[in-house]
Amino acid sequence: MIKAYVYDHLTAFLIGILLLVFTRLIGGVMEVDHEFLIAVLFLEGLSLVLIFLYDYLSKAKEKRLFFKRLEELDQKYLITEMIPRPDSKEGAAFYDGLYEITKSMNEHLHEQEDEVKSFKEFIEMWIHEVKTPISALSLILHKEENRKALLQLHRIENYTNEVLYYIRSQSSTQDYIIKDVLLSDVINQVLVKNMDELRAYGFELDIDALDDYVKTDEKWLIFMIDQILSNAIKYRKEKPFLKITSKKEKGMMDLVIEDHGKGISKSDLPRLLDNSYTGKNGHLESKSTGMGLFIVKKLCDALGHQVKIESEEGVWTRVHLLFKKDLEYESLMKEHTISSD
Amino acid sequence: MKILIVEDEATIREELVALLKNHGYETLAVTDFKDVQSQVFKEAPDLLLLDIQLPGLNGETLLKEIRRTSNLPIIMLTSRDSEIDEVLSMSYGADDYITKPYNPTLLLLRIQAVLKRSCATPTPTYHDVQVNFEKGVLKRGDQEEILTKNEMIIFHEMLDHLGEIVSRDRLMTSLWNQKEYISDNALTVNISRLRKKLKDLGFDNAITTRKGMGYVLE
């Protein structure tokens, strides 16, 4: 800080030194008493030192406080709330400027937040609205037994759900309900929902008894498994095969959804759960939004589950959903409720 | 069986009416949403399909009101898929709920299941054969045939619609709905086995195939 001060005040220092030099020169020319000259030079020098010292120390206190508070703050833009308005005119002017800046930025931020919120609300409402015509169409097409159109309708429904759950995964409010959910019930709902497609493509199914309970939000889990199953259907090969098993491992429940499809290349695996990552398969098929697994990951994070994917390209893919032990889960939920209050 | 539909979306309402009539239910629909409650009591249906969002009133409130005085079986139709609605509906005493978009086959199965629960079913028989669903046994005199779970689900579905065409789709939905995820080929195999077992009981050609439509149990 001293270095910075000296750098900022180089001109002032030079003028001070010049003052001393000139005093000495004028004193020499005017043949002033030597001792008197030394006294004047000493007084001048002392004044200069005091002036700079006072200036430095008075500003240093304000500056130190400012940087200390700034470092402590999480949201730096709230800094003006955390420091007093400086007494010095210069400091006060800067403070006022900073106050204006952060105020305008905060207003802007609130506007953005409001916009995002109302946009989310609109999308949620829109999705519920669009479900009515989808339902009507589903009833009509079933009556006409138009299988092709029904498959397409099912895809539309999936894509709308993707948007809905993307928004939910981004939301900071928790609109999920944690209950004990029987795995076989959840899998049943997803399989019945996708029955038409699974039958149309001739999937062979090997489904475990899955008579274990996990603590989760049923709807969210249904959505997640639906996404995983959609991928298995999308990236199927000849003689498609789907296997769903569950096992207890180190107190965790591991739900494994395995398909014998195109698989995922080694290079794609690590980035599979990232935002908008489509990978090789996606590019080949050019119809993948790449959001599905990303949303699954986000929902898992929110619910305290884990998702892991392993695969051998061209042979199989296994998606693991891992559910925590009850105890750990309860303490996690407790933390969550406390921090959200 | 008389079913009353309370759903404000005209297209969905009409399609539901058509679907249920097609499957042999006497079906009525509320079109005037003023004082729905008294209309419900006036019609006295065997089952109520109730949309959760109605113009000018809340389906949940209506459900609560009806429950105060009646045990009428009610299936809630929901479009908002927020869990809260369903949890509330069930705690207010709905018998089941179905989320949009509806799969008609599944809807029919749910209706059938709720109606079965509410009505006292007589001991099921097929001609002079006693049917024991739990044990999976068909008994005629002292002759017994043991059916597998899959065969029993198929037989049950056909027995519920004796003399009517039951589509493969319906059989598959019923099987999958009961967590038996068999393939189309396996269904064909199961039906031939069932045919053989019925033949052993003395019912030759009990199940006939209607090409492209389904099967009929006579």
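The first strand of chain B starts at residue 2 and ends at 6.
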